[in-house]
């Protein structure tokens, strides 16, 4: 899987204001900004993203995914 493929999978199921994905094909890092995270605790946000990946998280297709998740308001306060 490529970073663009993983990015496309996440974006197809989660409305993202900003999305960055990088990694080595098995180990991934993602920066995800979505209004859908509003009111969710960090673990719930991660579960929401894992849900978009479905079975890929249980196979070696996506071996590891670390995430930074923000709402648009939270992202606006970050220094980019």
Automatic annotation (TrEMBL):
Residue intervals passing through the bilayer: none
Family (UniProt): Belongs to the BolA/IbaG family.
Name of the molecule in the record: BolA family transcriptional regulator
Native source organism of the sequence: Ramlibacter agri
């Amino acid at each position: 899987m490529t970073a663009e493929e993983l990015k496309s999978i996440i974006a197809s199921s989660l409305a993202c204001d900003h999305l960055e994905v990088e990694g080595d094909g098995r180990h991934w890092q993602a920066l995800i900004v979505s209004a859908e995270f509003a009111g969710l605790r960090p673990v719930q946000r991660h579960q929401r993203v894992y849900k978009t990946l479905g079975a890929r998280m249980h196979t070696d297709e996506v071996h590891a995914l670390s995430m930074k998740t923000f709402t648009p308001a939270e992202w606006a306060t970050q220094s980019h």
